[in-house]
Amino acid sequence: MTEVVITGLGAVCHLGGGVESFYRALLDPERAAPDTTTDPLAHVPVPNFYFTPEGAVPAEPAVVDGLPVGHATRTALTVAREAVADAGLAGALDAHGTAVLMGSSVADAYVVEDWRAHGSFPEEDRWTPVFSTASVVAQLLGVNGLATGVSNACSGSGYSMAIGADMIRAGEADVVVAGGFETYSRVALAAFNQVGALDPVSCRPFDVGRGGTVLSEGAGAVVLERADRARARGARIYATLAGSGWSCDAFHATGLDPEGAQIVRAMRDALEEAEAKPDDVSFIVPHATGTKLNDVTESRAMEQVFGPRTAEIPLYSLKALTGHTGGASGGLGVVAAALFLHHGSMAPNLPVAEQDPECRVHVPTEPTPLSGRLGMVNAYAFGGNNMSLVLQGEPR
User: Fold this and answer.
1) Which residue from 95, 103, 343, 388 has the fewest beta carbons nearer than 10 Å?
2) CATH number of the domain to which 272 belongs
3) Domain stops at, among 232, 261, 284
């Protein structure tokens, strides 16, 4: 099977703009209180949200070829450009051989929400489709291979990366810029309030007192390319995207199947494609949203895959630090995992105040040297869209 490697990373979230700021925050984690949205039309019980810092995402472009470009698309463009530059490919992408895949739940929905709030709909182009973001990113990167948006909700970026790797293996692209993005949406905030999925304090995965998640702006992207091509040009390789597994619960519009059968299937399929065994995995970045059902279901699913070793495998609980970045969450999880593999150590977690006894997992609060070269990233979504990715680090 064609080896697909990660040669560039891009990240932005409330922790800061750029991979360097992101990684620095992972190494020295601090629990930040969520912002309170100043949106005057957000009439919700829990108005908490994490926003990207001012200046982390450029205010331009506002329009491309007559199509409105909102904050969400500019956020995606920001991390795509960073990943391409990090890969050493800025200005050197092959136009026909490069594809762009971007996952998001609602993309630039706030543009339409703002039009509706002010009664100022334009005469034409009265919507902002999810797929337009990938098209804008591709155009501004100067490439015209496949450009598509993946709207599998909170697992969208994971699907983008898996599809991108499959495209490279199939010979449909030499390079893929893949990731996900999410920014503030009034409707999304209201929807999460309506289903009771928000914690009024903070995102506290695996904590017995957890009450839900906290939504957050963010984006994560990677550059994927054929390993032989990357090595021939002397590129830095963070990790190999060795396997992916996807499945769908088809159980409930928003809730996980509490049995977790399809989550188990996704993890096992990812390991099988990577030609790896459960014992080969040295750390996991779980989905771990902080909701009561998700954390317990994912913990039990990991026990089915990893057995008693589940209580020993180091987990990195990313959302405890970043909040839930929706369609970007899997992408940021992959960026974090690639950095851990590259540096040979997993960053410390924020402490869990009192761990839920139903979540028999290991969440270390000290830096953890990796015992092996394999890491797993999980991303789940409304509609039961499950994705697991297996990354393999370079020999040390």
Assistant:
1) 95
2) 3.40.47.10
3) 232
Place of tokens 């829990």: 46
Q: Which two tokens stand for residue 368?
A: 């953890």
Q: What is the pTM of this model?
A: 0.96
Which residue, 189, 191, 209, 193, is CA-closest to 201? 209
Contact (CB, 8 A) for 220 and 209:
no
The angle formed by the CA atoms of residues 371, 340 and 307, to the nearest 5 degrees, is 50
Q: What parts of the chain have a pLDDT lower than 70?
A: 119, 121-131
- Supply 63's token pair: 């329009």
Cβ(336)–Cβ(330) under 8 Å? no
With 0-12 / 13-18 / 19 or more C-beta atoms within 10 angstroms meaning exposed / middle / buried, residue 350 is middle
Cα Rg of the chain, angstroms: 19
283 shares its domain with 225 = no
Alpha carbon 34 to chain centroid, angstroms: 19
Query: What digits encode the pLDDT tens for the residues 146-196?
Result: 999 998 888 999 999 999 999 999 999 999 999 999 999 999 999 999 999
